[in-house]
Structures are given as structure tokens and as C-alpha cells.
Amino acid sequence: MWSFRDHLLSLHSLGVTYQIGGVLLVGCMGGKKAGVLSQIGYLIMGLTWFPVFSQGGGLGYLQEPSFGYLLGFIPGAWICGILAFRFPPRLEFLALSCLGGLVSIHLTGILYLSLTELFSWTPESSQQLLNTIIQYSLFPLPGQLVVACAATVIAYLLRHLMFY
């Protein structure tokens, strides 16, 4: 007898949250101002104990290594918004804007990690800093690229449906 359970495709997690997709989609759809304002609001909500971050919320997030990447949402949405509206809404230009936003998020996160190392907010050695950068930037990057591609396609479809 054939069992559906035995023949299912196995699903694997991308290892990322869809926060990145939201940042990039707002930048592609709303532009630089809407992107920045939405991300500032998101950070304020998360830091005032609304559980909107991937692991809750609160001021304790300031000491998390991942907080720099959350801060990177602001310039990421800004860069994505600038690039998305600088060119016609073609798929390759929207993909370029999402890639620019993603790079900005990672650069801000790496800068935050480096500053915490420099000012010893967290006691880490240089090797631990490199391992932390690899953990937070390199390992999730393939999944984040998939999410960025999805945000690109959604933004492309929505911008053509909305005629802008």
C-alpha cells in the first residue's frame, strides 16, 4: 500500500528568519524614506519589550552580537529604497537593490561586532570575533540570498500590478 507520508519531499530550513525579506521588500516597494522609518519603528518596538525580534525583545538585545545586524536594517532599507527607485522596476535592478541592502546589513553587523570587540563590551579574542562574524554573516548568507530573491520577485510583481 502506498503511503503519502513515506513519499513526501523533505523540507529543510533556510536557517534564517524572514526579517531580511521584510526589510528588502519595504525598501523596494516604499522607497528610502518608508524603508528607514519602518525599520526605526521596528527597532523601537523591539527595544521597548515588544517581542518582534526573532528571539523576543527588550534592551538586552543591545548586548547581543546580532544587534548590529538589526541596526543594519536601517541603512539596508535605505540603500535598497534608493536603488529600487533610481532605475526602472525591472527584475535585475530590483535584485541589485536587494543585494545592496543585504550587503549593507552585513557590513553594519560586522562593524558592530568589531566595535564591541574594540571597546570590550563582550570579552572576545580575535579568533572568537572571526568565528562570530562567520556565524552571523557567512552561514546564514545562502538562505538570506534565497529570501532576497523572493523579495525581488514579489516587489517586481507588486510594482507592475500597482503601475509604479
Describe the secondary-structure layout.
Blueprint: H1 19-47, H2 67-71, H3 73-86, H4 91-118, H5 126-138, H6 141-161
Helix pairs in contact: 1-3, 1-4, 1-6, 3-4, 4-5, 4-6
If you had to describe this structure to a student in words, what would you say it looks like?
This protein is mainly α and 164 residues long. It has one domain: Arp2/3 complex 21 kDa subunit ARPC3 (Orthogonal Bundle). The protein contains 6 helices and no strands. Helix 4 packs across helix 6 (141-161). The mean pLDDT is 90.
Gyration radius, in Å: 18 Å
- General form: globular
Instruction: Give the number of helices.
Output: 6
Q: What is the ordering of alpha helices and beta strands?
A: HHHHHH
Structural class: mainly alpha
Return the average pLDDT rounded to an integer: 90
Under the CATH scheme, the architecture is Orthogonal Bundle
Report the major sheet.
none
Distance between the termini: 53 Å
Oligomer designation: single chain
| CATH fold description | Arp2/3 complex 21 kDa subunit ARPC3
> What share of residues are in beta strands?
under 5%
CATH class: Mainly Alpha
| Unreliable residue stretches | none
What's the total number of strands? 0
Helix content: 55-70%
Number of domains: 1
